[in-house]
Amino acid sequence: MTAADALTFLLLPFAACVAFVLIHSYFGVHVLRRNVIFADLALAQLSALGATIAFAIGYAPNSLAGFSYAFVFTVIGAALLTLTRRVERFISKEAFVGILYVAATAATVLVIDRSPQGAEHVKKMLIGNILTVDVTDVTKLAVLYAAIAICHWLARRPLLAVSGEAASAGRSAVAVSLWDFFFFVSFGLVVTSSVATAGVLLVFSFLIVPAVIGSMFAHDLRPVLLIAWSVGILASAIGLAGSLVLDLPTGAAMVTTFALVLVPAGLAKALLFVSAEQARRNRATAVRAAVASLLAIIFASSCWLIANPQADQPLLAMFEHATGLGPARFLKASDRATYESADRDTMRFETEVERLNTRERVARYDGSPLADDEVRRVGSYQRTFNEMAQGERFVQQVLRGRARERERWLVGLPFALLSLLGLGIVARPLWRHRVRSS
Amino acid sequence: MLKASLCALALAIGGATGFPALAAVRIVATTSDLAALATAVGGDLVSVETIVPAAGDPEAFEPRPGDVDKIRRAEILVRVGLGYDSWLDKLLVRAGNARVMRGQAGYVDGSVGIPLLEVRGRSVVNEDGHSHGAANPHYWLDPHNAVIVTGGIAEALIRRLPEQQDRILANRAQFVNAVGERLPAWTAQAPSRAGAKFIAYHNSWPYFARRFRLDVIDFIEPKPGIAPSPAHLARLVSHGRQAQVRAVLHEPYEPVESSRFVADKLGIPVVVLATSVGSLPGTDDYFALIELNLKLLAKALGGSP
Questions:
Q1: CA A12/CA A18 separation, integer angstroms
Q2: In chain B, whose CA is at the least distance from the CA of A119?
Q3: What is the pLDDT of residues A168-192, one digit of tens each?
Q4: B2-18: per-residue pLDDT in tens?
Q5: Which of B54, B67, B61, B64 is closest to B28 using CA atoms?
Q6: Taking CB atoms and an 8 Å limit, are A9 and B230 in contact across chains?
Q7: Which domains, and CATH codes, for chain A?
Q8: Is B229 in Cβ contact with A247 (below 8 Å)?
Q9: Low-confidence winner among A124-128, A376-380, B183-187 (lowest mean pLDDT)
């Protein structure tokens, strides 16, 4: 695989991401102002319920009938969400939306139970398939989103007013409900199309993260959107590139990237977009907080080592892995030799299993086929080698435990004391500050 | 051959008329394939129920209360084993039916005696969140293995109905003969198929590939439920182009986008094959399952017989 080859793979997904970011960030701003964060999930799930029912009745997944069922359920969802404003006095918006979501999901499962083929839908909705969009998909999305964007631009004043705090100011209850309904129907169309392509997790990120960052730095729609769009497109590019370079599933890599983008955004907000004096104070607090959490983790880990050296020691294992300073150096010479030979043998057995696998696999189609008894023999060798490799791993585990017993006091105690001392130094100004202010 | 099977048939019919009507033995099978094999062995001596719906994904199955009831009433239980239907263990405990508990007379693990492929350890642990525990469990897709499974079922059925031994053995012999008759035609069917290379969505085909001499070079979904990474897809495409892969094999219950994507890039067809009896239309019994799959493959390879 050449780099150029892989890059052409990502052009269409990136185009789709740009389309998603442009429309979702806009809806995200509305959703944040309306405080119905999970409305997208509820609408997408209702539309999936419609699609699943259509499928269960016997329509093809991408047929007009299938789409109509999905759309009808989206409209029902929009109507129910419009109710949130009316029932707000008795039940909180988020609770209402959440109930809608779980009920729709459960109903989908019940329908699938009657037509198992539909399981594909639910799986697809969860994971999405941003990587495999084709030109027609992207064109369809672009046309649909452009149409919705034009409608929303024409109706921007009432829509913004209805989403804002003073919703009912100067409007009748019916008018507000109608605008709400229009908003949720168009929103439903957007998420239905995007969830089928990108999956619920990614769509949620497209919707919320850029809008949150935009709202951090500005208040009016235009600057908020400009920031959200730039951040969203940048995060998409980083996520896609990361999934390519690090060989990760694209959707999950992008969601993680979107979440991580919040960190630099938060730092920028605290350090750059404030007065010089405030920035200095924030910087000091940030550094102190970072050092303190690091020390706290080291302290906890050292205590854990002292308390239970045989248990999993994640921090120590990470340190060993990063530095190559294995537990072997805390063992007696004879034990160390055993530890190292166990390592070599594990590898040898695993290679052996792999070799047998390859041999059997090749014999499936090439040369004379293996008789059943030969296959059984290969299988029993594999089983034996696997068992032996497991045995060697067990030996290593026991020896590691023995090494950790020694590290307990040699490593655990000094680190615990040092980190505790450090924590004391870091926390002292805070302590003093609190005493003074009380 | 034909004569032999006719004899067996006559024997079976003779047996059926020679005895007064009995209450059918209740067999519960976890999958539709095992149910089909149990029906072949039991004939009208048995009534067979299946737990996983034919078109469902047995590795992601969620049992329901009715299934406990099925097991509670079962006299013989047939399972795939190898961790493939590991959800059954909890169900067994819940049902508390002593006849079909592990090791009892009514318990049949179909994987016993099968020449297993891709063997891991002895322990049945879901190592990578995948139901392939001790070895690859898709063994029923090789007709030879189906013969072995019917042996296990026949044994259990004879334990339950010793007086019907002849009839049961005759039924089984009929199945074995039928496989023996068809197998030469099946394996000889397509010289163009020999050594043909494929990419599969999921690792469901090693036994099928071994019997029909296919080369499945790689898989689209590296782990179930996790979408393939772009690097993996790019690797599949370049690997597939180099190896001149002829088609992408796909399971009916998996999302088709990734398979179609790879197939389009390579300019080859996606072939949706039936993984189980009843998972595609026209796979109502075991022979239809194998025949349909071979027909679909032949079509994908350009129809040359």
A1: 10
A2: B253
A3: 566 777 888 888 899 999 998 898 8
A4: 444 544 444 444 444 44
A5: B67
A6: yes
A7: 3-267 (1.10.3470.10), 292-437 (no CATH)
A8: yes
A9: A124-128
